[in-house]
Amino acid sequence: MTTLPTTALGSAGPVVGIQGLGCMGMSEFYGPTDTAEALATLDAALELGVTLFDTADVYGSGHNEELIGPFVRANRDRVVLATKFAIERRADDPAYRGVRNDPAYIRTAVEASLRRLGVETIDVYYMHRRDPRVPLAESVGAMAELVQAGKVRHLGLSEVTGDELREAHAVHPIAALQSEWSVFSRDVEHTAVPAAAELGVAFVPYSPLGRGFLTGAFTAAEQLSEGDYRRSHPQFSGANAERNAQLVAPIQKIAAERGVSAAQVALAWVHQRAEVHGLTVVPIPGTRKRSRLAENTAAATLKLTATELVELEPVAGQVTGDRYADMTFTSAGRE
Ligand SMILES: NC(=O)c1ccc[n+]([C@@H]2O[C@H](COP(=O)([O-])OP(=O)(O)OC[C@H]3O[C@@H](n4cnc5c(N)ncnc54)[C@H](OP(=O)(O)O)[C@@H]3O)[C@@H](O)[C@H]2O)c1
Questions:
Q1: Residue 275: pLDDT band with limits 50, 70, 90
Q2: How far is the centre of ligand 1, averaged over its atoms, from the C-alpha of 104 (Å)?
Q3: Cβ-count burial of 4 within 10 angstroms (0-12 exposed, 13-18 middle, 19+ buried)?
Q4: Is there a catalytic annotation at residue 59?
């Protein structure tokens, strides 16, 4: 059994396996979950050298933090725990998503996360979304106070632009920027990725498998179960899905030629694209199944050839549909 190589999560960040595990789907968004299998997946990931475990207060409205809490506590010295604040929900309106960056909210949110996780310190605390109405220095200043108070070890941001990352980093060192980056979604390469490379901030690509679409597991929203968040995703609906499903073909072709899976090609692409930009990446593919882990971790050391990379180069430019129904929810919406 091979274990993952390690890297520093940004110039001042913790050492982690070069691929992490996204835990979001264990609680919400991607259809029904077998909880026992999800919990077994956490243990199996750690055995393979995955050390960065990613959650957020918003996943399942606190459920995800409570779910992984016992695993984190049982392995506290080996797990690098990342969670996030900023997305507010309402019990009476499941579709509601508010964004809160004000210091008072941050101070309350961190206490709630620590309580649900049952730990004294969060290793990486991310601002999940940016509320441009609150000065960034105020929000990052409040996050820095959490570091000083010992509640948080390192800071991260999610879905910020290159300029926002620079501004935040000047207030307090940012260890990691977490945003969507995959063969299908490359808008972060405009400003966020170059800024992270310049500042020595690690990049944590989320949805590196295009929420499962790049693996060929589904080709249209209707194939997903009722209530699956991806049913309302613009890229997976109607004519967009039909067209985008064809764009998975080059990934599948390379996978067939190399005797690997499409998921592995998609993950290898993110690792190698980061090399081009000269920055550290730690993708966090999400899975709830032990059976996927050996496959996904092996992809971290798979090397695509120059010809294969050229074949994948035009894919993102041909994708139709936005990566969120509301693009103001992303950094691209502010660029
Ligand atoms: N910062 C943000 O705003 C943000 C947004 C979204 C996600 N995230 C984080 O990023 C993590 C990863 O993103 P994601 O879960 O959205 O998308 P993803 O990693 O691109 O894809 C996850 C999907 O792919 C499936 N999958 C995983 N490995 C597979 C394999 N080898 N073969 C076939 N299917 C496979 C999973 O199904 P199974 O579970 O059934 O294996 C799941 O449906 C999340 O868990 C979350 O922690 C952050």
A1: very high
A2: 31
A3: buried
A4: yes
pLDDT at 1: 58
On the CB side of 239, CA atoms within 13 Å amount to: 1
Catalytic residue among 59, 105, 125, 206: 59
Q: Is 206 in the pocket of ligand 1 (CB under 6 A)?
A: yes
| Distance from the alpha carbon of residue 293 to the mean position of ligand 1, in angstroms | 12
How many CB atoms sit inside 10 A of residue 257's CB?
11
Q: Residue 37's pLDDT band (boundaries 50, 70, 90)? A: very high
- Which residue minimizes the CA distance to atom 45 of ligand 1? 22
Is this model's pTM higher than 0.90 or not? yes
Contact 157, 171 (CB under 8 A): no
Share of residues in the chain with pLDDT > 70 (%): 99
Nearest CA to ligand 1 atom 15: 286
- Phi and psi at residue 62, to the nearest 5°: 100, -20
Those residues whose C-beta lies under 8 Å from the C-beta of residue 269, and which sit 6 or more positions away, are 182, 183, 304, 309, 312
pLDDT 10s digits, 322-332: 999 888 889 99
Which distant-in-sequence residues (6+ apart) come within 8 Å of 153 by Cβ? 14, 121, 122, 123, 124, 147
Do residues 11 and 43 touch, judged by C-beta distance below 8 A? no
Q: Is residue 25 within 6 Å of ligand 1 at its C-beta?
A: yes
The amino acid at 56: A
